[in-house]
Predict the 3D structure of the following.
Amino acid sequence: MDILERLARSQRITEEITQSDDYINWLENFTLKNKEFTDDDWLYFPERISEEDKEQVSKLYNFYEAIQEYANKNYIHGTPDEFGNHYSIKYNNIGYKIGIMIGQGTILWVQRQRITKKNSDSFIDFKLIQENVMTDESEMIRSKLESLDNLISDIANENVPIEAIAKTAKNRLQLLKEINKNK
């Protein structure tokens, strides 16, 4: 199988994961016994996992990719970890952290999470991912970014030097980073 065929197959798997409840239901059952795991936990002990579970674990990258695609469309940023990031999702009132660690290789991981009233809003509802729903907040963000893009274009068309626009934007972003860091 050449690289284009593998990419197409991977994309199909990613789409299939969000088009039915099969994968998330498997994950729900699997995490009853394995509250947290990585995609390489059974690499040296393959006899400790069934063939079906092994196949499903091998799709973890596709699952992560589906979540990441949805998050990117909705301006949701993954929570940074030491060597990667993770997203928190929920399904059937069960929470999951789905993450990636990148070093000499790539490892994907899952951790089953408890959902409380206090943390419920920090989870992406998997149903929204399946339905590819744009959130109200993402529509507002898209509109504001479009306005910013138009303003930059207007300023540039009025012969304000690109370097001055870039410097002003960079300074403002740096100030916002400092303010957010001190919160």
